[in-house]
Amino acid sequence: MWWKQGQRLTRLYTFKHRRFQLIDSKFQWKYTLVLAGGVGVFSLFAYSVAWYFIEQNYKIFIDYAYAHSPNFVSNLEFERRWIQNILAGSLLGLNIFVVFTTLKILNSILFPLQVMKRHLLHLTKGDWSQPEVKVRAGDDYTELVDAYNYFYKALQRQSMSELNKMMSLEISKNAHRSRDLWKHLVEYKYEQLNGSSLEFEKSHDPHLAS
Q1: Would you say residue 207 lies in a domain?
Q2: What are the C-alpha distances in Å from 9 to residues 133, 148, 160?
Q3: Per-residue pLDDT at 74 exceeds 60
């Protein structure tokens, strides 16, 4: 029909190539630090126990080497330093891995919600011309996104049906107030559904023809 012409191209709410960035930094860092802190405390305790026994055992080995074979002392010292460096590096690496992995997991959880929030924000502002929400197949909440899209398309169909019914109304030429109100409602509904303003032309509008 005539009011469906000239629809604008809207941006798709889909992101195929996403670079890593925090969606809700306060929320993500809060729970990331909680998890990393818990893992850090338990891992630090385990590594401290291991460090203690390594120190005690190597002290015994070095004392024994001094008494029986002093040539092995430098080798034992070198080996002890390497084991200590490996323990410290693995503790640091574990905490970095926990932080990065937690942030990535929270990103995958929050991303579909953020897209729907942005879509819903435009919807509440009266923009019903947006395309459906699209997320990647591997993202979470795909069923929720599908349910939201079904709800959104149902609202669009209902609004289009209302616009069709309004266009089918017969407005008397002498009812100026009713005609102005009808024109305003049709313009508003058209702009809501198509995202662009409507210019009435008498050649397209039999109700306004003289």
Answers
A1: no
A2: 15, 21, 18
A3: yes
Does some domain include residue 204?
no
Residues in a beta bridge with 186: none
**H-assigned helices in the chain:** 25-68, 73-124, 142-167, 176-194
Asked whether residue 82 is domain-assigned, the answer is yes
Give ∠ CA 36-38-33 in degrees, rounded to 5: 35
CB 184 within 8 A of CB 155: no
Chain-wide mean pLDDT for the chain? 76
Structural domain containing residue 106: 2-6+22-194
In a domain, 206, yes or no: no
Query: Is the CB of residue 69 less than 8 Å from the CB of residue 102?
Result: no
Residue type, 170: E
Assign 13 to helix, strand or coil.
strand
Per the model's pLDDT, the better-predicted residue between 64 and 200 turns out to be: 64
Note whether 112 and 144 are within 8 A (CB).
yes
Q: Backbone phi, then psi, for 133, in 5-degree steps?
A: -75, 130
Q: Is the pTM of this model over 0.70?
A: no
Number of domains in the chain: 1
Instruction: Give the list of residues 6+ apart from residue 210 with CB closer than 8 angstroms, or none.
Output: 173, 202
